[in-house]
Design brief:
single chain; 306 residues; alpha/beta; Rossmann fold; six-stranded parallel sheet; two-stranded parallel sheet; 10 helices; 12 strands; globular
């Protein structure tokens, strides 16, 4: 019996050293695929000629483009850089595939941020794009560009739009990453308690474990060109994340609202629909949220102790 991904090797992965990318590389190798995931120090994705040479040398059966400047906060501070580099990296990868590996399956990893505030829930792939920050604008542009390479160039390009994902190895730029890092730091310091300061804890978001997300990428890569949401379909309040974290922490966890972190226009709830991907591949999240929180905390414990 074969499993998703068996027909995708060898694989070429950009962003393989990042949060989701490292989990993807691990998964692909566990499934017996040869993987080329050159680090940024060895391959500058802003250099189109270098990307073309790297793709030609790898002769991939599949290309997973995950590399991006992915911080929403940074995008507000440096919008030109984020817009320019995310789009340039994407066009360089697509052009390299077109010239050197036109038969390869290509997955361009996008973001549920491109939808903006949802007009209705759950958010499906036919919802209009209404990005509300420079990062989301950059991902919407990359998404449209990838679609044009499928429609106008005939490449096998799949576009995924992943909602919030979390798990071991995530940076503290994101809510699960920052909450688990603060707890791990308090534990390491020998404190009896930790006070987590957050913004609106009633905001509800759609979280999926990163290990489930990369399984979705592998499954989606074998599909016909199109757009596929990657999400759980459930919305969880930040308050619930804190409660789950308090159950596995080795210190007492208290919580306080930081008025400076409250956003006046915070969207109350965001959740997506992954029924299109589920119907075509059978993919569904397998890892429970409490296990995601535990793994994220364990990851920070290990990182802070080394």
């Amino acid at each position: 019996m074969t499993q998703a991904g068996d027909g995708l090797g060898p694989a070429f992965v950009t962003g393989g050293g990042g949060f989701a990318g490292s989990h993807l590389v691990t998964l692909l190798r566990e499934r017996g695929l040869d993987v080329a995931a050159p680090p940024h120090a060895e391959l500058d994705l802003l250099d189109g000629d270098a990307v073309a040479r790297a793709v030609a040398a790898a002769a991939p059966g599949s290309v997973f483009h995950l590399a991006a400047l992915a911080s929403v906060e940074r995008s507000w501070e440096a919008p030109r850089e984020v817009l320019r580099e995310n789009l340039a990296m994407t066009v360089n990868v697509l052009e390299a595939v077109r010239s050197a590996a036109p038969a390869a399956a290509v997955l361009v990893a996008g973001s549920g941020e491109v939808y903006g505030p949802p007009a209705q829930l759950p958010v499906a792939e036919d919802a209009p794009l209404a990005p509300q920050n420079p990062y989301a604008v950059s991902k919407a542009a990359c998404d449209l560009l990838a679609g044009q390479y499928a429609d106008g160039r005939g490449l096998r390009v799949v576009r995924t739009r992943a909602f919030n994902h979390a798990g071991p190895g995530q940076s503290d730029d994101y809510v699960v990453g920052t909450l688990t890092r603060q707890v791990a730091q308090a534990e390491l310091a020998g404190h009896a308690e930790v006070v987590l300061r957050t913004g609106n804890v009633e905001a509800r978001r759609d979280f999926t474990d990163v290990r489930d997300v990369v399984r979705a990428y592998v499954a989606a890569a074998e599909l016909a060109p199109g757009v596929y949401n990657v999400c759980s379909g459930d919305a969880v309040a930040v308050r619930m994340l804190i409660e789950l974290l308090s159950e596995v922490a080795e210190v007492e966890v208290r919580h306080e609202i930081d008025p400076e972190r409250l956003r006046p226009n915070d969207v109350p709830e965001v959740r997506g629909s992954a029924e299109r991907l589920r119907g075509l591949t059978g993919w569904a999240p397998q890892i429970e949220l409490e296990d995601t929180i535990s793994a994220a905390l364990a990851g920070w414990r290990e990182r802070l102790r080394t």
